[in-house]
Amino acid sequence: MATAAVKESNDDLGKLILRVTVGALIVFHGLALATGDAGIPNNLVRWGLPAQLMWIGFLVEFFGGLGMILGVYARLGGFLLGVFMMIALFMAHSGLMGAQNHWFMVANNPAGNHWDHYFLETQMFYLLGAFSVALLGAGRYGLNIGGKWN
Amino acid sequence: MASISMAETGSDARSVAAVREDVAKLVLRCSVSAMFMIRGYAVLTGEQAIRDTLVRWGLPQELAFASAYFEELAPLMVILGIFSRLNAAAMTFWMVMAFAMAHIDTGHIFQLDAQNVGWRVEGPFFFLIMSFCVALLGAGRYGLNIGGKWND
Q: What is the pLDDT of residues A44-59, one digit of tens each?
């Protein structure tokens, strides 16, 4: 009985730090986007789409991230962020419409003298971390708003 | 009759939730481990960053070969489902050491990345947290399931 309780609280703790990490880190990207980071708008324009669609990305990154941190519709936020990352990988990293195909590339270390990581490492962490939040749910430690979507 | 079908519905609903959790645990442990192994391969084939950090702290740079366990063997066992919690805890320890030795005194933890769009240590922090999550959540059902409570 005691071990089962420990295991359950470990589960909830794992869900908490997973969703807070993914949420807190993506919120920064949402803020950067809202304050002039040109990455997403440039990609939209390259695909012949209006740059204003970036505000959908902002909503997902900022409010989805905030919801994951607080435990408000965390599953929904995780799912939407996962879909958002799939679109990002498709539009910006798959060799389409003039972009480079990054799927089978490694990238250099900060010093620039040796490769040291998978090119899409960060993107994969967000994609898979977000879908993991969607699959695991928020756990016990949070505001617990959103019913089965949390 | 009615009670039987209710019980069946109940167990179905539980199993969907359980499958979701197991899939998430599989996705988490395989993604963090695969990317660890790519970084570990770079270290073993001559990437200098860890060696430079060790030298800066007055330690022998050969300690970088510990990544053969922490960044290759441990992640491989996590992927397979062999003592996943223990090995993920070791990977977490490895990342704590990375932060202690390379990212705190250098001020990286207070900086944005080169493009000014995210936290500078986003990558290492993801490795730290994802490993810790695997240690806390366990491997789930999809794997070799070796190690009893130290795996699942």
A: 999 999 999 999 999 9
